[in-house]
Amino acid sequence: MSGIKGPAIFLAQFLPPSDQQVTLAEQCEWAANLGYKGIQLPTWDARLFDLEKASASQAYCEEILESCRAAGLEITELSTHLQGQLVAARAADTSSLDAFAPASLKGDAAAQREWARKQLIMAAKASANLGLTAHATFSGALLWHRFYPWPQRPESLVEEGFKELGELWLPILDAFDAAEVDVCFELHPGEDLHDGATFERFLSVVDNHPRANILYDPSHFLLQQMDYLAFIDLYHERIKAFHVKDAEFRPTGRSGVYGGYLPWVDRPGRFRSLGDGQIDFRAIFSKLTQYDYDGWAVLEWECCLKHPEQGAAEGAPFIAERLIRKSDRAFDEFSGAIR
User: Fold this and answer.
1) What is the dotted CATH code of the domain comprising 5-326?
2) How many whole angstroms separate alpha carbon 120 and alpha carbon 112?
3) Which of 212, 203, 38, 67 is nearest to 132 (CA)?
4) Which position among 7, 37, 63, 297 has the lowest Cβ density within 10 Å, counted as fewest Cβ atoms?
5) What one-character DSSP code corresponds to residue 272?
6) Domain boundaries, the chain
7) What is the per-residue DSSP string for 64-90?
């Protein structure tokens, strides 16, 4: 029977600084030695992966897959979180996002957007060449700076913003549909798609596109004080990817959900290493199993206290202990009362 696969790990937070050498084979060996069975692969770091080559060359993709297989690993999804941010970005934010695009495009918002669009199209082709069925990304943010309704804003502002967001993403979603790969938006503060309400509004402007789906990460919902278990009940049909990331929210007399511009270590809501936060992962794994989620459980590690090596080492057994082998029979079948 199918079930949740894992444990897997998103490599982005565990790579050495950009001025140091690293190979995919080395990262695979490291992950496998910690007990992981899959890797989510960032597409913006050429030390590990050449997205353009992967979109055009099946032979190159076979080399990538063989590097993973040699360590006993599978690729869970490719990630274009950084490029997705640029698909829908305000010109006013260009300077803060310059690092996400090639240096030759610095300061040119239009060129960065076009580059990001092409990156996502290549990611669709590369995912298909690698035999993947899901892809992880961000929606970008045209409206996030207006998420709080003060100063007052006309409803037309939101409608126009989501209309533009849909127009930017619809051709990309069509490209992923042609590749038979789901686009899994990580619903995340700082993105226009950050909760169920915004995701529903997005669906309405992309004609309920079948490839518009969700990367479920409960940490972002806890920090927004949402019911992250009820979210699964509501949207399980669209959940096609899963980040296993912990968080805690401890409001004080000084600050709450908005964080008071404090550094992560001092914020009431902060990400934690697995098991150190407040999220009920046994309940999450149970609900996802109940709804037959058969994708990967991928550690995304972000903690303001614990060293990443410790977080990675603790993550694999944490996930493995929560995987559920779904029963193939009723627990009371022994009674024979129903024929």
Assistant:
1) 3.20.20.150
2) 12
3) 38
4) 63
5) E
6) 5-326
7) HHHHHHHTT-EEEEEEEHHHHHHHTB-
